[in-house]
UniProtKB/TrEMBL annotation:
PROSITE patterns: PTERIN_BINDING. Belongs to the vitamin-B12 dependent methionine synthase family. Transmembrane segments: none annotated. One of its GO terms (cellular component) is cytosol. It holds the Pfam family Pterin_bind. It comes from marine sediment metagenome. This is Pterin-binding domain-containing protein. Residues 20-171 form the Pterin-binding domain. Keywords: Cobalamin, Cobalt, Metal-binding, Methyltransferase, Transferase. One of its GO terms (biological process) is methylation. One of its GO terms (molecular function) is metal ion binding.
Amino acid sequence: METVVTGKGTEVKFGPDLPTVIIAERINPTGRKSLAEELKQGKFDIVREDAIKQTEAGAHIIDINVGAAGVDEVEILPRAVKMVMEVTNQPLCLDSANPKALKSALEVYPYKALINSVNGEERSLEEILPMVKESGSAVICLTMDEGGIPDNVEKRFEIAEKIIKRAESIG
């Protein structure tokens, strides 16, 4: 099985027997006060700089996360996506726990995105998987649920199977 995500004139494939794909995750305000402050103000200088540097460093996919206290993700994530598309042709990974922010970002991204992420929580399955189907995006699946991250591999496989079955039922 092979998964493909796209950017402007760019295609990245990943799966078994394919080379490792590098997903750049620098555009994330967690632990970066300067980026969080800039995003609160609706500014994107650091986002732009990070996207350029990560592309130049060889990243295959650029992850964009704008989740921070005081940041309106529904407004800011699509603006960040537009900014990053101005400086790189690499496919984008839209990274948010807010389904409305993901939807607004997908509306401005005309290519096949990677969504980060869906998990085994019922709310996540109900809100994210239909969006994945509708947009034709790929999705990262996290093996956690309402109980958190399981301590054992059996429970993680159980959650993975739950996500896969739900995705298959949606189509």
